[in-house]
Amino acid sequence: MSQKRVIIFTAKLEMGGAERVASVFANYWAAQQWDVMLLTQAGIATDFYELHPEVERKTLNLLDESASLRASLTQNYQRIRKLRMIFKSYRPDAVVSLLPQSNILAIISSFGFSHKVIVSERSNPAQDPLDNIWQQARKRVYRFADTVVLQSSGVLSWATDFIPNNKIKIIPNPVISDFKLDKQHDYQLPSGQKVIAMGRLSREKNYDQLILAFALIADQVPTAHLVILGEGVERENLEKIIKANGLDQRVHLPGKINHPHALVAKADIIALSSEYEGFPNALLEGMALGLPAISYDCPHGPADLIEEGKSGYLIPVGHIEKMSGAMYKLLTNQSLLTKMALTASQVKQRYATPAIMQQWEALM
């Protein structure tokens, strides 16, 4: 495809699934010698992901919480005004937006321009509703986008209620090609077998249940450890659960770690305990690094990635004992773990970045 000018627009570039995808898009297209701007509502202070040197990084600096409806309307007017000024000066061929509020702002700000507007839902909208004003705005303006990208067919029934079918496209996330496995970290993994998980320490990730599942087998597999990479509001609660179960030396919460894949690659199992997902990047990346997966069969994504009994195990959401049993089965059977690891790594081909990016480029 010929070179393009593209603006990738999202709320911020801190640690998170949508933010990681935004950086992958920007870096990939910049490497193809496209003109790429990565634009966020927030400033750069919270940026977590590294960008290709040719990516133009720009911000609106307008992501503050509004104290009132009037303040919210004023701030959104300012966002739209700034966006239109940027669109007018940059003259992109396409605006690719991620996350609902950014999507709505991108669509409204694009009225009167000729560029393509491609918006993407990165979570599970049925499980992660917006407040009422944004909810209503989404239902009214998404139809004006050129394409609405979903990550899983499981979200189709939600989308077809208010978006024309011919505007909906399902494209899963790409697996990154450069894992930076030579990256050195201050944090050192514990010795022994390791179950690892990655993501924000937030309620919907159910890390409390993952810890309790590990607790059930901790005495039976005394060399095993559980490591959860990420930070968030649930830290204090999780630390209390760890202490109450006497797992201070067995369950580890090292916080946010940039380029975590060098650590993930040294683990034995990738685990996911979420109540819901848009598409589980952490699970995809762990499997691509050759880790068999144990995951709740939540909506949506794990069932698309895991071949039951071949590359991992799908566990009904909330079944802590079954999660624990799957951990025990893999941690105590090295030949099974090795066999599943080989199968798990095949997601690298199915979700290779060039193949996924071609689908996005076709929309432009």
Question: What does this 3D model show about the protein?
Answer:
It is a single chain. The protein is α/β, with parallel strands linked by helices and 364 residues long. The chain has 14 helices and 13 strands. Helix 6 packs parallel to helix 7 (235-244) and helix 6 packs across helix 11 (320-331). The radius of gyration is 21 Å and the shape is globular. The model has no long low-confidence stretch (mean pLDDT 94).
* Broad structural category: alpha/beta
Q: CA-to-CA gap between the ends?
A: 10 Å
Please state roughly what percent of the residues sit in beta strands, choosing from under 5%, 5-15%, 15-25%, 25-35%, 35-45% or over 45%. 15-25%
Average pLDDT confidence is 94
CATH superfamily of the largest domain: Glycogen Phosphorylase B
Spell the H/E element sequence: EHEEHEHEHEHEEHEHEHEHEHEHHHH
At the fold tier of CATH, the topology name of the largest domain is: Rossmann fold
The Rg value, from CA coordinates, equals 21 Å
The share of residues in helices is: 25-40%
What kind of sheet is the major sheet?
Answer: 7 strands, parallel
Put simply, the count of helices is: 14
Shape: globular
Largest sheet strand order? 3-2-1-4-5-6-7
Count of separate structural domains: 2
User: pLDDT under 50 segments (min length 5)?
Assistant: none
CATH architecture of the largest domain: 3-Layer(aba) Sandwich
Brief summary:
The chain is 37% helix and 16% strand.
